[in-house]
Each structure stands twice: as C-alpha cells, then as structure tokens.
Amino acid sequence: MNVSSNEITAATPVFVALAMYTLPDRGEYGTQEVMVTPELATAWLRRNEANRKLRHRAVAEYAQAMQRGLWKTTGESIKFSKTGRLLDGQHRLAAIADSGIALSLVVVTGLDNSAFDAIDTGRSRTGADVLLIEGVGARESATVAAAMPLILNYQRGLLPHNRTRYSNQELIEAWGTQQGIRRSSQFVTKLPRRVMPIMHSKALFLHWAFCQRDVEAADEFLERLYSGELLGKTEPLYHLRQRLLSMRMEGKTISEMVVLHACIKAWNSMRTGKTHASWRSIFPKSDEAFPEIVR
Q1: How sure is the predictor about 16, in pLDDT bands with cuts at 50, 70 and 90?
Q2: Are strands 30-36 and 78-81 parallel, antiparallel or unpaired?
Q3: What pLDDT is attached to residue 113?
Q4: Cα–Cα distance between 162 and 150 in angstroms, integer?
Q5: Using an 8 Å Cβ cutoff, are 273 and 217 in contact?
Q6: What are the residue ranges of helices labelled H in 37-100?
Q7: What is the CA radius of gyration of the chain?
Q8: Taking 90 as the threshold, does the pLDDT of residue 48 lie above it?
Q9: pLDDT, tens only, 208-257
Q10: Contact 152, 164 (CB under 8 A)
Q11: Residues 139, 190: Cα–Cα separation, whole Å
Q12: N or C: which end of the chain has fewer CB within 10 A?
C-alpha cells in the first residue's frame, strides 16, 4: 500500500532508520526493505553519478501511477555499489520525489561498480548508456554504440551490416582496448552535422576501417565527403556525395548495406585513381558482391 511521507510513524513497517540510508556506503552485499520517502529519494538521486539520461516521460508516468494508488511492486530493487553509487532505480526514485508518495522498496547495497553495464541490458541500459559511464560524451556515445557492431563484425570476418548482436560488456571492452576506435570517434565528432551525406555512426566505421590502410587518406576521404570542397565531376567522391544527398533530400530510404558498399567502392576508386562518369557505377547492382577494402 502507498504511504505518504507525513504518515510514517514508529508503527509503520519501516525496518531501518532513515539516517542509515541517506548515504548507503556499504562495502558488503546486503538486501533490505526500506520505506523510501520523497526526501530520501532526493538524497539518493544525488548518488546518481554518470548514470544514464533520465527519461522524463517515464518519470511522469510512474509518478502519476503512484499518486493514483496504481503503482505495483514488481520486485525490482534499488541498487547501490559498495561505494554508495546509485546503479539502478533512478526513474523510480525521481517519481517518488515528484509524486510526494513514499513507497516500501527492496534496496540492494554492496554491488561492484562494474555491475552497471549488466543491469537491465536490452531494456533500460543501452549500449550508449554503458559507454557514457566509461567516459564517452553524451552525443558521442550514441554514435559509438551504433558503429561498434559494424566494427566488431568486420573484425570477425563478417559483413559489417550483419545483424549480429553484441553485449554491453563487449562494447565496453572494445572501446577500452582499441585506440583506433577512440581516434576515429574523436575524428567523427568534428565532422559537420548540418549536412550529412551519411550518418556519423557509418562514418566512424568507415574511418576506422580505412585507417587500417592509410590514416591520412581516411581523414581526407571523410572530410571531403562531408564538405564537398574541390571535388571534380569525375571523382568518385563527387558522385557518391551528390547521390547520397539527393536521396536524403527526396526522402528515399537507403539501406545500410548500400551506403557502406558505395562508400567502399568510392574509396577503392580513389585509391586506385579510377574516375566515374556517374553514380551508377559506384552504387551496387542487385547481384554484386560486397567489396573488399583495397590498400
């Protein structure tokens, strides 16, 4: 049953004093039931260090359900690390603070800080969420999370657009151990966002892949693709850029496979000095195999 904060008394089933839980620094694992008041929820939210973004619509829906007495306990706990960092539960706590309603919740303390990436995987914690906690910028994290499967596929000998799913932990490990990915991410953040022939996530993958052949050439390819500066009308980059922008302006859908295929063919042509009269020789035909990246 919901209990408002001004109804809590010694007879209320509150098992632990409020003061003990204001800052839950507990080194050992433990689970207890706690009556979480709006004041306590607010204090705990201050322990939300570099957690994922707050989804305000979800908070509003939760708060409304609490105020109407429709909130149902699911057994999901509020989770803290052994250093007192809030790992899970920020939306429920924010809803309690906004609604003015106290709720009895299960609280788990003493977890490893690294448990963050394993909580609610596939539902609340996205790849961008866990990369954010690793120090990747808020805007950059979404780009990296979208590009990482392309990179990991390529490293495993798969087509980059293969629909293989990777765990949050695999994304974190790749980000932390592969300097080339971090360099390409830093490069892509400097590319324009107003006029984008391709999404930044695809640009990140392509830059990383092309850097395996030639770093300076990879920089030049992406910079010229985005800027369009000094492109001759027989250059592969000219036809690639014009066609991609034209399709975007016309609202046409272009698959990830087609984008990557055309970009790699344009790279190959640039590296070998091949010219093109139109975009048709760059974009794939229906029976054309996916190209390898040349020198």
Answers
A1: very low
A2: unpaired
A3: 78
A4: 8
A5: no
A6: 38-45, 56-67, 90-99
A7: 25
A8: no
A9: 999 999 999 999 999 999 999 989 999 999 999 999 999 999 989 899 99
A10: yes
A11: 12
A12: N
Q: How far is CA 186 from CA 135, 173, 211, 271, 288, in A?
A: 13, 18, 13, 24, 33
Tokens of 113: 């800080």
The last residue of one of the domains, among 118, 137, 156, is: 118
Pull the structure tokens for residue 133.
């906690």
Question: With the C-alpha atoms ordered 213, 141, 223, 203, is the resulting torsion angle positive or negative?
Answer: positive
Give a yes or no: residue 190 inside a domain: yes
In a domain, 292, yes or no: no
**Secondary structure of residue 204 in the 3-state scheme:** helix
Q: Would you say how long the chain is, in residues? A: 295
User: pLDDT tens digits for 80-124?
Assistant: 888 888 888 888 999 999 999 999 998 988 888 777 665 654 345
75: left (phi over 0), alpha (psi -120 to 50) or beta: left
Which tokens is 277 given?
């009269």
